[in-house]
Model the fold of this input.
Amino acid sequence: MMATKEPRVVADLGRPETPEETAARKAETSRTHRASQTVVNLAWSLGVSVAVMLVLVLVVVRPDLPDREPVDYTILAEQYESQAGQPLLSPELPQGWYANKAELETGTDGVTTWAVGFITPSNQYISLNQGVEANPTWLGNQLTPTDRPALEGTGGEQLDDVAWTVYDNRTADDAGNYAYAMSAELDESIVVLRGTADANEFRTLATALGAQR
Done:
C-alpha cells in the first residue's frame, strides 16, 4: 500500500497550504506573469514604432522650400516707368546676380518706391530701394529696422561721381538685412541699398547704378 504524500509546508505560513490558499497563490502567479508579459510586449511595440519613425526620417527625402523665382526687373522697370513718372533704376550687373523681387508701391507717406531684391554671387541679399522724389523722412524710414533706432552713417564713398553714405552695422546683434547699407541721391530720387552682402558686392551694385545715370 502506497504512503499518502504529506502536504508541503509553506515557509511563510509554517504549515501546509489549504486548497483555497494554493488556488489563490497560483492565480496571483498567473496574473503577475501576464502583467509582466504585457509590459514587455508594450515596450517591444514602442521600440519597433520608434525604429520605424527613425527610418522614415532618415530615408524619406524632404525637399527644401523653393526659393523665389528670378524676375526680369529690367522689363518691369520699363512697364512701371509711366506710373512712377521718371526712369526707374535697372542696373546691368555681372553674371551671377539676379533679382527675386521687383515691385512699385506707394507708401502712406505718398512716396513711390521702386524696390528690387538682388541675390548676389555669394548668395547674399541686397535690397535696392529707389524713392521717387523722396524726402529725408522716407530716407530715415528706409534705414530704420523694426524696433531699433535708425542706422547712422559710418563713412562715405565716391563711386562714378556719385557720393554714397555708408552705414556699416555688421557688428550689431541680429542685424539681418540692415547689416550694411548705402544711400545716395541719383537725379530726382533717393536710393537706399541695404542687406547682408559684403562691401565689395555693395560697391558693384552702387557702381552699376551710377553708370545708368
Q: What stands out?
A: The radius of gyration is 38 Å. The chain has a mean pLDDT of 83.
